[in-house]
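Below is the record:
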Amino acid sequence: MNNKDWNKYEETIEQFIQVIAKNMSLYGVTPSIGRLYGVLYFSQEPMTLDDMREALEMSKTSMSTGVRALSDMKMVEPSFKKGVRKDLYKSEEDWYKSFTSLFGSRWRHHTETNIEEADEAIQELLELQEKTTDEDLQAKISEDIDRLEYAQNYY
C-alpha cells in the first residue's frame, strides 16, 4: 500500500467533490449539501447518517437535513442492507439523471416565477396605460407589453 498514492487519490476526489458542491450552489443548493452528495456518490457502500457525519465532520442533524433535501431532489435514495438496523442512503447511480432532475426542477421553478412576474407587470402596465394621458408613454407601454408577452411565450 502506497500512502502517497492514496493521499493523491483522496485529494483528487475531494477536489472533485468541491466542484460538485460549487456547481450545485449555482442552483440554490448549499455547499454542504453539495459536498454530502459528492461523498455519497463516491462511496462504494450505502452510508448511515453517522458515516456521513464522520466523513464531513458535520452534525448528524445537518446530515439528516441534507439527506432529506437530496432525497426530495431525487439525488439520494434509501437503501437496505441485511443486518444493518440504521437507515442507509446511497446516491442515485445515474449522474446525468441526478443533475437533470435537479436542474430541471430549478428551471421549472424559475420559469413559473418569471411567467407570474410578467403577468403582474402586464396588469400594472395596462392599468397605467388606461390612466395616463401621455401618448408617448402609452406607446412605450404597448411596446413593453408586447415584449413581456413574447417573453412569456418563450416559457
